[in-house]
Amino acid sequence: MNDMLLTPGTAEYVAAEIERAIHEHRLPPGSKLGEDELAEVYGISRTIVRAALQGLSHRHLVELKRNRGAFVAQPTVREAREVFEARALLEPRTARSACERMTPEGLALLQAHIEAEHEAVHAGESGRAVYLSGQFHVEIARIADQATIEAFISELVSRSALIIALYWQRRAALCESHAHHALMSAFEIGDADMAEDLMKSHLLDLVTSLDLRNRASFPGSLREALAQ
To answer: How far apart are alpha carbons 83 and 167 in whole angstroms?
Structure first.
C-alpha cells in the first residue's frame, strides 16, 4: 500500500500505516492491535479501525481471534517456506519482464531505493531498511507492468517482513546490497536472462539467512510502534 496517496482518517490510510509499521518491524509478530488504542492514536472511530484490521487480515498480516481481538500475524515455518516458494516462482520472471520494459525513469527509481536503503542501514534503522528493501522488489513488479502479479508480490513482500522479524539469524536477511546492485547492472545493460537468474539466487540467499526454527520476541507498546 502507498499511504502517501491515501486520505488520513480512512480505513485504507490506517491499514497502510499499520502495514508499514509491521514491515518496518515497529509492530512485531504477535502484537495486540487494540481497537480503542488505535482509534485514539488516529483520532477515528472503532468502525474505521475494524475495517482497517479486516483489510489487513485479508492480506494475512493480521489475525482476528474471536473474543480476543486482532494481533499481528505470526507466520509458521510452513507458511514462511510457502511465502518464499511463491516469491521464487513469481519474481524471477517478473525481473525478466521488468528488464525488458525498463526505462531511465525506472532505473532512477530503483537506484533511489537502494540509496535510501543504504542510508537506513548506516543509521542503524534495520526495520526501515527491511521496508525499503521490500519496496525495491515491489517496484520491479510495477515496472514489469503486471498489475495482478504486482499485487501478489506486494502481499508476499509484506508477509516476508513478518517472517524476517521472526526468523532472521543474521543481518543478511536485509537484502544484501550486492544483490540489488547486481540486479541494477542487469537492468542497465538490458540482460533479461541475467536479471532472472540473479533474482533466483537472491531469493535463495535470503531464505538461507533465516533460521526457520526459532522465533524472536519483541517488547514495546502499540502507541510507541505507531509513533512517527
So the answer is: 13
CA 120/CA 188 separation, integer angstroms: 24
Question: What whole-number distance in Å separates Cα of residue 192 and Cα of residue 65?
Answer: 45
Residue among 107, 102, 77, 7 at smallest CA distance from 48: 7
pTM: 0.79
pLDDT digits (tens, 9 = 90+) for 203-215: 988 888 887 765 5
Q: Give all domains of the chain, ordered by start, each with its CATH number.
A: 3-75 (1.10.10.10), 77-208 (1.20.120.530)
Contact present, 182 and 211 (Cβ < 8 Å): no
Neighbours of 183 (CB within 10 A): 24
